[in-house]
UniProtKB/TrEMBL annotation:
Keywords, ordered alphabetically: Lyase, Tricarboxylic acid cycle
GO molecular function: 2 iron, 2 sulfur cluster binding; 2-methylcitrate dehydratase activity
Name by which UniProt lists this protein: 2-methylcitrate dehydratase
PANTHER family on file: 2-METHYLCITRATE DEHYDRATASE, 2-METHYLCITRATE DEHYDRATASE-RELATED
Record domain MmgE/PrpD C-terminal: where: 280-450
The family this protein is said to belong to: Belongs to the PrpD family.
Biological process (GO), any one: propionate metabolic process, methylcitrate cycle
One Pfam family it belongs to: MmgE_PrpD_C
SUPFAM superfamilies named in the record: 2-methylcitrate dehydratase PrpD
Keyword presence, Phosphoprotein: no
Domain MmgE/PrpD N-terminal intervals: 12-261
Domain of life: Bacteria
Organism encoding this protein: Piscibacillus halophilus
């Protein structure tokens, strides 16, 4: 079977994964920012017991050469290390984002990529070979971002009820195999098995089942990608028509016969256009609504009881996935609710991860404000959301009071983490990183960690295991 021609999409992924020197100065610089931001998000997650209780080995064991999980004392095999670190990155819904026909968070792949690179580097050093460097990790991340993001441009898993983390699994499987020294055949074998794995259902992201699995689903996917890569290096076979096989392939079984397509060739488009969650740990479709709400806070904070209606204009994807009424059962439910996020901004003038916890959610004013909200799709917003040269994430908020007076309709088309606002956003991204790491590291350690990201060449030349060692506590 391995001599048969693989599906075109699987082969294109393998060919791209094997390319050397992907990325230019811009995309490599953004990749460094993605690594910095993801590390900060992972460290912030350690403040939440709901996350830390999931970390560590499945069963106690001694690992001679493995992966060190940043910010923890765990030294694990690379698969379990990838689950740990991937879960940390994703836990608070604060890492980078990509929005198209499918949605997702391409830095989820860093969970697997950094841990397998750390394992390779430690193994190489133990065998007197050269370790991988953080430039290798940066270029690997450009590849995983591109694979996941380009797949997301035209292929909607969410409309089939499937979760986007399948694309994480595919991207990690491909690039982890390449980092391990795999051949084109072995990369295709791993990728085909990732497609055959399928994806989890999205039900854990939506009413009535929204729950904490959405915070570890990416860790699960990226670790599975690493596991499939390691299996392929043992010469485990692949499945050439995993996508297109009649009746039994992915397309017929799960996509109602719709082909998986690539909207454009792989390069570094996704990294250059990635969206950073800079200001607020909230589902990205709500970021501009959050900005509007917080800007309106000074006008309405003393008149919350006088509000008769709050009108939110939004785009189709936001209306479909985060327009929620009724009870919200847990933090995972609340941070994916457009109305809850907007209410928090209006009431408190800020939005933090703590605002999703039960203590804040018990404030009866939140649900009173939510009940006054009307969410309307703006067709222009929906169109510009999918426009390749715009990729806006627009929301507008207007407050109407009982005396029939109203605020201006406050509109934001692009959040501060958008490429169009990159110059404005970069210093804020560094501030976010500082705030996140300050929750776990002392001032001396914070200074050392921030210094790591200040010099491009020094960062790119740093051996991976030495970079990971910097995160010891």
């Amino acid at each position: 079977m391995t001599n048969n021609k693989f599906d075109d999409v699987i082969e294109a992924i393998a060919d791209y994964t094997l390319q050397d020197n992907v990325g230019d100065q811009e995309s490599l610089s953004v990749a460094k920012d993605v690594i910095m931001d993801s590390m900060g998000c992972a460290i912030l997650s350690l403040n939440y017991e709901a996350c830390t209780k999931l970390l560590g080995p499945i069963v106690p064991m001694n690992i001679e050469v493995g992966s060190k999980v940043p910010g923890t004392s765990y030294y694990l095999d690379p698969v379990q290390g990838s689950f740990n670190f991937g879960t940390m990155i994703r836990w608070l819904d604060y890492n980078d984002c990509w929005l198209a026909q499918e949605w997702g968070h391409p830095s989820d792949n860093l969970g697997g990529i950094l841990m397998i690179a750390d394992y390779i580097s430690r193994k190489n050093v133990s065998e007197d070979q050269a370790p991988l460097t953080m430039k290798d990790v940066s270029q690997a991340l450009i590849k995983t971002h591109e694979i996941q993001g380009v797949l997301a441009l035209d292929n909607s898993l969410n409309r089939q009820g499937l979760d986007h983390v399948l694309f994480v699994k595919v991207a990690t499987a491909a690039v982890a195999t390449q980092l391990l020294g795999g051949s084109k055949q072995q990369i295709m074998n791993a990728v085909s098995n990732a497609w055959i794995d399928n994806s989890s259902l999205r039900t854990y992201r939506h009413f009535p089942n929204a729950g904490s699995r959405k915070s570890w689903a990416a860790g699960d996917a990226t670790s599975r990608g690493v596991w499939l890569a390691l299996m392929s290096l043992r010469h485990e076979m692949g499945y050439p028509t995993a996508l297109t096989a009649e009746q039994w392939g992915f397309e017929d079984v799960l996509m109602s016969g719709k082909s998986i397509t690539l909207a454009q060739p792989f390069k570094d488009y996704v990294m250059k256009n990635i969206l950073f969650k800079i200001s607020y740990p909230a589902e990205f479709h709500a970021q501009t609504a959050a900005e509007c709400a917080i800007e309106l806070h000074p006008q309405v904070k003393d008149q919350l009881d006088e509000i008769s209606e709050i009108i939110i204009h939004t785009h189709e994807s936001a209306k479909r996935i985060i327009d929620k009424t009724g009870p919200l059962n847990n933090p995972a439910d609340r941070d994916h609710c457009l109305q809850y996020i907007t209410a928090i901004g209006l009431i408190y003038g800020d939005i933090s991860a703590n605002h999703y916890e039960d203590e804040t959610a018990a404030n009866p004013l939140i649900d009173q404000i939510r009940a006054k909200m009307t969410v309307i799709e703006d067709e222009r917003y929906s169109k510009d959301y999918l426009e390749p040269n715009k990729r806006s994430i627009a929301n507008a908020v207007q407050i109407v009071f009982k005396d029939e007076s109203k605020t201006d309709k406050l509109e934001r088309e692009y959040p501060v983490g958008h490429r169009f606002r990159r110059k404005e956003g970069r210093p804020l991204l560094h501030d976010k990183f500082h705030d996140n790491i300050s929750t776990q590291f002392n001032e001396h350690q914070q200074l050392a960690l921030k210094k790591t990201f200040n010099d491009h060449e020094q960062f790119y030349n740093l051996p991976v295991h030495e970079f990971v060692n910097l995160w010891d506590r």
